[in-house]
């Protein structure tokens, strides 16, 4: 069977029409607006996300992809150096540190509302991935892990898809940044009346701001190297939003 | 490391000699609490001074209280404060700051503040830090690294203020890295600049006040704390904390954080809880 180009896979994953559940999320935008952030601050806020929390997600995906790529080249390759001593799960991928990557991501995501949102999105992504790439070892490993331990965050699933489809690390980073910004931008149009073209420019500005970080994040190979850049105000807004009954978006 | 007298002393207020730049060479401020040598004896406390001096305030058979005192004007450009804290198994330490810290305009020279914390199994550390002020023109990298033994408890208060009264403040990178034998518990890097506030990071708030309470896991399954889907995200909010945010970490432990306009408005408790050492 011929394979699609990695760019086609990236476009598919970034497409809002993809049935992965992303439409229920605003990438923290609704929590920010309800928390009092003025609409005029959205461009700077998008740049802030692109250079903080999006890089945590991107680094998590990149390291996940590296772990699976190393595993597919055979056990006990270089990546095993970062493996957990205590991996007990029978699945061979776990000895390469999948639990370590999840743990690194969780330690960098202190807000439970944001961990929950990421796991909901991960579930949707994994449902898609297991249908589109059912035989890919990375996807099968995640399905097995999910069955035992519960939902994996979206960044982990994206990393497995990247490994399964040959998506280059730098493009995995760009995809993560773009998807976050575009999710917020399209949510903005549902929350505030404005010219639909305007947020599109903001998305590209956010992507441009992240560009100086792309190669550094794409070079991450171990869980410890995943960026830890946080956004405390966003975390506060996310927790407050999770308690609201009247909201348009899940997070 | 020089062993200081272990006679409890009261410390004087720090004297700030504005005209005398502190030496820029890195000297480590060490505080080590070790188990008593015999029945009924107090814990042993070893200290050595760097840019911060360590003064023993009190001790008994299980716990000690040590005050950290600025030895001179700090932080100036090029200064590198290193604080190394070690608490042995079963012992507890309360660290207090005597006076807050100001990172001054370094005229283009950055400064650093690094704390390295090692807690043995069942050990406890409560560090009630006073405000760390990043003056306009300062460029600070401040890191806190902690490694917790099984069942060790860590309570940290960190208050960072961008700018003295009437100024917007310089640049600061805050990094917190807390882990135990199982893996990371909290890894966070916050970058802020007083003249370039970023909505979503700190917004316009000059004060970031954080109280972190975490414990080392008591053995068990290596990934026992991971991968559990969160339940009710907002559950467990602590009452009485006003507009502070309470974050329950995946590995257990709580981070309570307040962003605001001035330190005196913070709803966070000034000192760590009663369960800590010292008192």
UniProtKB/TrEMBL annotation, chain A:
One of its GO terms (molecular function) is nickel cation binding. InterPro entries: UreF, UreF_sf. It comes from the Bacteria. Pfam families: UreF. This is Urease accessory protein (UreF). It comes from Promicromonospora soli.
From TrEMBL, chain B:
InterPro entries: UreD (IPR002669). Pfam families: UreD (PF01774). It comes from Promicromonospora soli. Residues 1-20, 214-245 are annotated as: Disordered. The lineage of its organism: Bacteria, Bacillati, Actinomycetota, Actinomycetes, Micrococcales. One of its GO terms (molecular function) is nickel cation binding. Keywords: Chaperone. This is Urease accessory protein UreD.
